[in-house]
Every structure is written in structure tokens, then in C-alpha cells.
Write a structure and sequence with these properties.
The chain is 36% helix and 25% strand. Helix 9 packs parallel to helix 10 and helix 13 (295-311) packs across helix 15. The protein contains 15 helices and 19 strands. It folds into three domains: 3-121, 3-Layer(aba) Sandwich (Rossmann fold), CATH 3.40.50.620; 123-245, Rossmann fold (3-Layer(aba) Sandwich), CATH 3.40.50.720; 247-450, 2-Layer Sandwich (Dihydrodipicolinate Reductase, domain 2), CATH 3.30.360. The radius of gyration is 25 Å and the shape is globular. With 451 residues, it is α/β, with parallel strands linked by helices. The chain has helices at residues 15-26, 38-43, 53-62, 77-85, 120-125, 140-148, 169-176, 181-186, 197-209, 224-237, 251-261, 286-291, 295-311, 403-416, 425-444; strands at 3-8, 30-36, 68-72, 89-93, 108-112, 130-136, 154-160, 190-194, 213-216, 241-243, 268-277, 317-326, 331-340, 345-352, 360-364, 367-371, 380-385, 392-395, 449-450. Bound molecules: cytidine-5'-triphosphate. The site of cytidine-5'-triphosphate has 17 residues, from helix 1, strand 4 and helix 5.
Amino acid sequence: MIKVITYGTYDLLHYGHIRLLERAKALGDYLIVGVTADDYDKTRGKIDVQQSLMERIEAVRATGLADEIIVEEYEGQKIDDIKRYGVDIFAIGSDWKGKFDYLNEYCKVVYLDRTQGVSSTEIRAKGRDFRFGLVGEVAFLNKIEEESHYVSGLAVEAVYSKDSTLLSKRLRALAALTSTYEAFLDKVDLIYIASNPVRHFDQIKLALERGKHVLYESPLCLCRKEYDELTALARRNGVVLMEGIKTAFATAYSRLLLLIKSGKIGEVVSVDATCTSLKAIRQADDAWLEREWNSIYAWGPTALLPVFQILGTEYRYKHVSTSFLDKTHHFDLFSKIDFIFPHAVASIKVGKGIKSEGCLIISGTKGYVYVPAPWWKTEYFEIRYENASDNKRYFYQLDGEGIRYELVAFVNSVVMKKRDTYIEDGVSRAIVKVMEDFQNAVNQTEIDFVI
Ligand code: CTP
């Protein structure tokens, strides 16, 4: 019996796939089809696969062409499979010509002509040619633009910026073409907004009123009344309003949450998150204040994310200690917030123009999770126990700091007309509450206050 094996993602199964499978099957008596797992696809740069692994397997099964279906999960697995299943022929489309010659050592390698004019990428891009617009003054917009190239159907076509000094040449040129925010909105369908949070409410409200989908750099706004108004408006207008904390979209971070929920460290008793950066420029002119976010705006949402996602949002009270660079503009250089929950505690430290060890530690009754700096864009973490030989290390590749996964989730939410669930509504609202309480407290006293 001649055994043939072939591999693919088979997203939105199409005629090209079926023709490939038919010809692969005709090469022998028994066809094994390897369907690529999502994680493995991500590591090889395929990030916007639409269907789940189970849906893709079902589609391949439904063709009736595969005698056996396996899942491809890691690099190098093909050699293992060929040996394990006693494969005689490895078949693959001609778009891979030459790439798998190394398998000739184990079996015969056949490249089959690729069917012209059809691909999953093209099918995914259909109905998705979105005009994408960027709003803000921060250099981070340059990264968003770079990362948007990895997402099918997303092209930056307009920029609105009050001060484009930190933007790339291309974004600056686009910004120069747009005089008013209203004119900017007319040119786009989807926006990413990273303007100073004090401007978020007005800008996001207008965008939602005009039926634009909004991905915002957290926080959404600075008080809960505004939060409720904006989220209700998005619902009414049937548009997506999505929080963009890139950490939430990183594979390592989401796996870490699952491991904690499954009890790997027992009951969680404490979450400690520190986020700092050295980029604050110490001069308080107006342009600078427009561009620079204070510590609590810039880092608060990221640091609060694991606290609220792991311990929930029902804390009893919090204690804030802070030091200010500019009290009039509420620019805090460094702040520390301690939370008391019914059965746990948490603390976040955020700093701008301050440097500290940016790690995340989650302590439990059986062990603890240690995520080394910079934990907010991590690929790696450890679960540590009393007995060090029980320690476990986890690694998940992170491309583009999580930004491209965030953009894919945004576009998918728009296409499916359903917001993703990476960051729960309750968490977003709790983040806004911290911003609101912080502002109110700052107005009353200078340093060290209990809310
Ligand atoms: N294939 C083919 N003809 C096409 C598309 C795919 O013969 N028009 C073959 C590929 O060469 C591969 C198999 O089908 O052997 C599975 O390919 P896959 O990567 O899943 O499909 P694509 O349509 O190429 O997906 P994408 O656009 O995401 O790269």
C-alpha cells in the first residue's frame, strides 16, 4: 500500500484545496492530511486564519478524500509523521517548490501544480477592504501602521494628529492632508485612536455617531458616566468599540490566564504588576502635554489588566501613592496603587521617566507565576513551586508585540459584527473607574490618598 501525506491550513476550504487533495490521493492508496493548528500557524506568520481548527478539520473530512486526518503542531513534525506513519510520498502545492526537498531523505517528495486564481488569503480579503484611519500624536502610531500590513484588508488611508512630530514620514504626509477631525472621519471606516485620553470622549463619540468602528488605546475615557454613554452609543449604532491593550492579545498572556484558572498555582492571593518607561521629557509646554501621557494613563490599563482579569473587579478599596511632575496637568511620574480584595491583594506600580523591574508576579497557595520584564510583551513565563524541580517554563512566540493579533481581532469583530472577548466589559469599566478615582483624588490632595 502506498501512503501519501500532505499538509495545509485549509481555511475556508476552496476548489484549489480540493484539487490538491484529489491529486495527492491519486498518487497512492491511502491519504493522510495534516491540518495545521492555530498556534503553529501563528509561529509561521499566518495570523488571520478565520476558521477554528475543528471547523477546518471538518471541512477536510467532508471532502471524503482523506483516509486519516492529523494535526500539525510543531516545526519538524513532518519528519516524525513520515517515519511514524510509514509514508511513501510527501505531496504539496508548487508554491512550496524546493522548500521540502530535505524530506527526500525520508520519502519521495512531489510538488503538485497550484490551482491558479484562488487562495484562502483572497477569500478572506473579500468584503474587507477597509479604509483605516489613525488618530493621535504618539510614536506608537508608526508601529500600528507597520503592523497593519500583516492584516488582510486593512490599509491606513488617513491620519488625524494635532502634533505629528513623532510620526513617520508617511503618516506625517497623510496628517498634512487632513485639516479637521470631521474631514478625517469622512475618509475612513475603521479607526485606531491613541490621542491623549483627555480627548478620547469627544473624538470617539463623534466617530461612533458617524458609524465608524473604533479600536482605542486604553483607557476609553476618564469617567464611568462617559464610559456608559460611549458603550451604549456603539451598541445602538451597531459598531464595534474595542479596547486595545496589546498584552491581552499575546498568546503567552492568555495561556497564563488559563493555567491560573485551571488551578496550577492554587488559589491566587496576590497580583503584583510593574510597568515603567523612561521616555518622559521633562518640559511642560502644551505640545508635550498633548503627546505625553502621564504614568497612570500610559501604563495604568496594562498594569490593571491582570489584576482585574485574575481577581475580578469587586475590590473593597484601594490606596494610591503618587508623586507629581506637574500637578496642574495631573502628570504623575510615578504611582502605586494597592487593592484589597475579599481574599486577595494586588498592587500596581506605574512610572514615566522612572525605571524599575517591569515584572509580573502572581502568587498562589501552591506556587507562583513569574513573568520577567517586560512582562507586557512577554513570550515567556515560569510557574515556580517550593520544590524547584517541579518548576515549569512556558514559551509562546510573540510577533509584533501582540499588535497584529489585536488588529486581526478588531477586523474580525467588524466582519462578524461581534466584539471579541479578550478584554471583558467589566474589566474595561473597572479601568475607567480607577482613572476617574485617580483624577478626583488628585484634585483634592497631593500625595498618598485612600479611595
Ligand atoms: N493549494 C493549491 N492551489 C491553491 C491554493 C492552495 O494547490 N489555489 C494547495 C497548497 O499548495 C497546499 C494546500 O493547498 O498544498 C493547502 O494550502 P493552504 O495554505 O491551506 O491554502 P492557501 O489558499 O494557499 O492559503 P493562504 O492563502 O492562507 O496561504
